[in-house]
């Protein structure tokens, strides 16, 4: 009976006992003016881009004569080739035909050529039966589609061109058709859609300092190389066109390959002003490294072609802004006018969303008929399509399971390995190398030490058992405020403050993770804050077409375009938080900082530039940018905390080495695939900072702990502090 009453008492106690109140650490539910705070990160990059584009526009407005435009063309071409990256030397195409399809009025040869040694391109060459001598040819780049040129809407345009007497070479772009980069045999398809097939390995290229567009352009250039080997083709009459992603390849390739006499990019050209204001930067290959930061925009791709015949094709309801297309057209018209060839730049608009429409198709046919000297009627005809399976090029239907060969990942991996070797060589002379890291960080991250810190805004206080909670706003580096939650022990206060940065935001750190409260209970003042893109300052509306594992790659691309980075901006804001602590508690003798997961990258950068951070604790950090680029199946969340191009001159181990002799604690480091790294493997990746700490006789200040349980983490931090 006693046990019965005791059980009833326990149930009643559980039901009626008040739940432990959670701390309200949010600020923007009160400060209504900042209701768009979650978009702060993206809008910061937008504001930077708009300034860069305005500067470019000022330069364009100065151009009056043909000589002015020729000078700009030379400058733009040089910049474009530099940011695309050096192209490899041309190797044998080793082209072969795997089959032939006969159709009414034309035949299709199934072709495989090697863009690079072992890097195969699957293609189809459509040849009219009535070819007499050398005929005009068109390279057709296909847009984002798993079927690629086998898809009906693409076949329709290709066959129409062929029936009008053009030889057409079309091919599978990377990540499409039979060139899937992440083909899964069990699924029978890629683990990614085509945009992510581009962006997932494309991000690794950008870590190396160049856009994957380099490979897209190279495939097209080699496609032209193949065309001019054919006896049916007149090398002086080559055109190029493509829709969407094919429009991207057309615009970039036609801007730099002078063999393309006539070009018609379709449903791609706009300008970055309207791109940033609408859907945002698109998947990886559409974003060249530091493009707007170098003063470039879509019109430059068209102006570089002046006075070669060019047709800009768009639709009025496309997600690529038609207003941007029109403004690009009118600006580029000035360049063609200066050459006395105003009519060589044309524009066609269709009343449609994103895709082919009859009047645009007919404008494209007429354009090529005129400028490739192939007269005829430009009517868009109904045609009989070829079943997709008949257009299979390889034996298995996928290069991944037939010829295998190189991928973007494998090609870039070789580049990264060379960059890592070069960086290791620089590390031999530690003094000289570390003296240059500061400039390298600024160069690649876009970091700028805050010139002013602004006024803090007090936003309320709560008195809880054992601690006070105060809330503040402080100005960020952009047009936004940083929300802070400050926990101050009431009795046991040891005059030490800790900045705790959690990848899931300050609310999670305060109410779902025990570390912050345990530190406060042990007498430490703890500041929690949200950084742009996190907590109350994120994630924002921009997901984009490369939204992988809940990570907006497109947001990361925005920073790369502008010569900025998420890491650089967050570094500035961490320093602002440290300044807040310093000025709020001038009598405190120590400021430390602890980060959780990917934010270790940002914290390391901040500590590098702010010596007020005396101890640096990294919980579950990844250990290097190069590691991400070398891992085939890397953890997508690490991308946002990576600095594109950095590994040319520095990586996270170099930043750690530059913090010597300050104390660094690393707990449960993660490998690039997101799994906890063994201590042995982690040490091997951190040989350089370990060496520097040892040489300076403070090896005990660099501590590494691996594979401990989450509930033990705060205990290790307390011991370390």
What would a concise description of this structure say?
This protein has 23 helices and 22 strands. It is of the alpha/beta class and 721 residues long.
Please give a structural write-up.
Helix content is 38%, strand content 19%. It contains 23 helices and 22 strands. The strands form four sheets. The chain has a nine-stranded mixed sheet, sandwiched between helices. Helix 17 (566-584) packs across helix 18. It folds into two domains: 83-380 and 389-417, Rossmann fold; 427-664 and 680-720, Rossmann fold (3-Layer(aba) Sandwich). By secondary structure, the protein is an alpha/beta fold.
Q: Any idea what the shape is?
A: elongated
State the helix count.
Answer: 23
Strand coverage percent: 15-25%
CATH class of the largest domain: Alpha Beta
Largest sheet: 9 strands, mixed
Question: Given the helix and strand composition, which structural class is it?
Answer: alpha/beta
List keywords for this structure.
721 residues; alpha/beta; Rossmann fold; 9-stranded mixed sheet; 22 strands; 19% strand; elongated
């Amino acid at each position: 009976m006693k046990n019965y009453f005791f059980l009833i008492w326990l149930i009643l106690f559980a039901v009626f006992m008040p739940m432990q109140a959670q701390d309200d650490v949010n600020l923007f539910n009160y400060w209504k003016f900042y209701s768009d705070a979650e978009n702060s990160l993206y809008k910061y990059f937008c504001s930077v881009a708009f300034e860069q584009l305005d500067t470019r526009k000022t330069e364009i407005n100065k151009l009056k004569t043909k000589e002015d435009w020729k000078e700009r063309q030379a400058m733009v071409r040089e910049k474009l080739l530099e940011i695309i990256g050096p192209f490899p030397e041309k190797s044998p195409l080793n082209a072969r035909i795997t089959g032939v399809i006969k159709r009414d009025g034309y035949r299709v040869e199934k072709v495989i050529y090697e863009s690079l040694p072992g890097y195969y391109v699957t293609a189809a060459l459509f040849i009219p039966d009535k070819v007499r001598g050398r005929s005009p040819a068109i390279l057709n780049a296909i847009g984002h589609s798993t079927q690629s040129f086998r898809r009906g809407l693409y076949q329709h345009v290709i066959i129409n061109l062929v029936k009008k007497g053009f030889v057409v070479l079309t091919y599978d772009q990377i990540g499409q058709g039979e060139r899937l980069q992440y083909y899964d045999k069990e699924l029978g398809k890629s683990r990614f859609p085509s945009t992510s097939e581009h962006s997932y390995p494309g991000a690794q290229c950008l870590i190396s300092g160049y856009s994957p567009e380099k490979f897209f352009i190279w495939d097209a250039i080699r496609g032209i190389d193949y065309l001019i080997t054919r006896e049916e083709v007149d090398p002086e009459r080559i055109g190029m066109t493509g829709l969407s992603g094919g429009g991207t390849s057309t615009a970039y390739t036609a801007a730099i390959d002078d063999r393309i006499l006539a070009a018609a990019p379709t449903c791609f050209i706009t300008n970055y002003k309207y791109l940033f204001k609408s859907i945002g930067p698109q998947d990886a290959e559409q974003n060249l490294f530091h493009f707007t930061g170098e003063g470039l925009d879509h019109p430059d791709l068209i102006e570089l072609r002046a006075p070669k015949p060019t047709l800009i094709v768009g639709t009025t309801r496309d997600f690529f802004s038609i207003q941007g297309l029109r403004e690009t057209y009118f600006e580029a018209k000035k360049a063609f006018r200066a050459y006395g060839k105003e009519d060589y730049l044309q524009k066609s608009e269709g009343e449609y969303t994103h895709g082919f429409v009859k009047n645009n198709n007919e404008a494209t046919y007429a354009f090529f008929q005129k400028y490739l000297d192939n007269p005829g009627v430009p009517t868009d005809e109904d045609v009989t399509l070829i079943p997709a399976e008949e257009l299979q090029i390889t034996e298995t239907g996928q290069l991944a399971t037939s010829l295998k060969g190189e991928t973007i990942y494998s090609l870039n991996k070789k580049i990264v390995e060379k960059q890592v070797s070069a960086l290791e060589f620089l590390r031999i002379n530690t003094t000289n190398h570390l003296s240059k890291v500061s400039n390298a960080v600024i160069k690649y991250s876009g970091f700028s030490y805050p010139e002013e810190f602004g006024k803090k805004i007090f936003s309320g206080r709560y008195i809880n058992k054992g601690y006070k909670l105060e809330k503040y706003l402080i100005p960020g580096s952009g047009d936004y405020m940083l929300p802070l939650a400050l926990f101050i022990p009431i009795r046991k206060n040891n005059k030490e403050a800790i900045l705790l940065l959690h990848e899931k935001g300050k609310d999670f750190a305060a109410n779902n993770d025990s570390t912050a409260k345990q530190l406060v209970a042990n007498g430490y003042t703890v500041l929690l804050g949200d950084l742009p893109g996190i907590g109350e300052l994120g994630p924002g509306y921009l997901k984009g077409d490369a939204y992988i594992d809940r990570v907006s790659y497109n947001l990361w691309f925005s920073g790369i375009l502008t010569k900025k980075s998420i890491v650089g901006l967050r570094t500035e804001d961490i320093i602002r938080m440290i300044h807040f602590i310093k000025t709020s508690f001038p009598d405190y003798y120590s400021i430390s900082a602890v980060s959780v997961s990917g934010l270790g990258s940002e914290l390391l950068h901040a500590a590098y530039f702010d010596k007020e951070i005396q101890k640096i604790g990294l919980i579950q950090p990844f250990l290097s940018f190069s590691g991400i680029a070398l891992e085939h199946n890397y953890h997508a969340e690490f991308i946002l905390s990576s600095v594109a191009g950095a590994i040319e001159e520095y990586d996270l181990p170099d930043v750690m080495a530059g913090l010597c002799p300050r104390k660094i604690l690393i707990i449960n480091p993660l490998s690039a695939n997101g799994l906890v790294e063994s201590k042995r493997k982690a040490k091997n990746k951190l040989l350089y900072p370990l060496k520097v700490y040892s040489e300076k006789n403070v090896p005990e200040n660099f501590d590494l702990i691996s594979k401990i349980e989450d509930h033990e983490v705060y205990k290790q931090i307390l011991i370390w502090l």
